[in-house]
Specification:
Helices cover about 45% and strands about 5% of the residues. It is mostly helical. It has a two-stranded antiparallel ribbon. α3 crosses α6. It is elongated and about 50 Å long.
């Protein structure tokens, strides 16, 4: 039996007003040398994990999972059903044509780790951007609003990349054992995602910015009315 922990956080009921994510931005990829920006995930400084903007620890849910179901559990946790994320699309946006041969030489476990690293890089950047928005102003400036929208774009990319991993598992491209090896070998946890969502909610509520609550099971949100539809790229 394996114990996995998920974060449970209430999210604001709002609609995402930003444009669809552009994962083809040159600053958006990270990883094996196949990525457009090899420093985005590996060199991103991890923020202090688990604490919200008020310093309170995020709530944790300990979930015991039978070993034979861990792979399926991880895939379900990564899936964001509100994003139409296909593994092939994630690879197309993440790996430039000039690095496709190098990408093909990687094992599937290493590919998954690179995509997880890229998603973590997006999340770390979101935390950095939102943490730089002061909450003590009378109203948001145009620059603060642009920063928030950029953070939401990177947030979408992170969630889409992880949802693409769930799609790869559903299509049979990734076996349970490979997914577990990739996640445990990479050292994935949800602390940064929890901090990210705390900051999103704090900034959005303070200045009236719209955003789509997180749709995956790594965080809690249950209202179908909050679901985003349409293209995500």
């Amino acid at each position: 039996m394996t114990d996995y922990e998920l974060d449970a956080t209430d999210t604001a009921e709002a609609t995402d007003s930003t444009d669809a994510a552009d994962a083809t931005d040159p600053t958006d990829a990270a990883g094996s040398g196949a990525a457009r920006d090899p420093d985005a995930a590996r060199d991103a400084e991890a923020p202090a994990g688990g604490a919200g903007p008020d310093g309170s620890p995020s709530e944790r849910l300990g979930v015991p999972v039978p070993d034979e179901h861990v792979g399926a559990f991880l895939a379900e946790a990564f899936e964001d059903p509100e994003r139409d994320a296909a593994w092939a699309d994630v690879v197309d946006s993440f790996v430039p044509e000039s690095a496709r041969d190098e990408w093909r030489d990687l094992s599937m476990v290493d590919r998954l780790r690179e995509v997880l690293a890229a998603a973590d890089g997006y999340d770390a950047r979101v935390v950095e951007l939102l943490d730089g928005i002061p909450l003590d102003r009378e109203e948001a400036t145009a620059e603060m609003e642009r920063t928030f929208h950029e953070a939401m774009r990177l947030r979408r990319n992170a969630d889409t990349f992880r949802s693409g991993i769930a799609d790869a598992h559903a299509e049979g491209r990734v076996a349970d054992e490979a997914l577990v090896d990739a996640v445990e070998g990479y050292g994935f946890d949800t602390d940064t995602i929890a901090e990210r969502e705390d900051l999103v909610e704090a900034v959005a509520e303070r200045y009236g910015f719209g955003f789509r609550p997180y749709g995956g099971t790594l965080m809690d949100t249950d209202d179908p009315a909050d679901r985003e539809t349409g293209e995500v790229w």
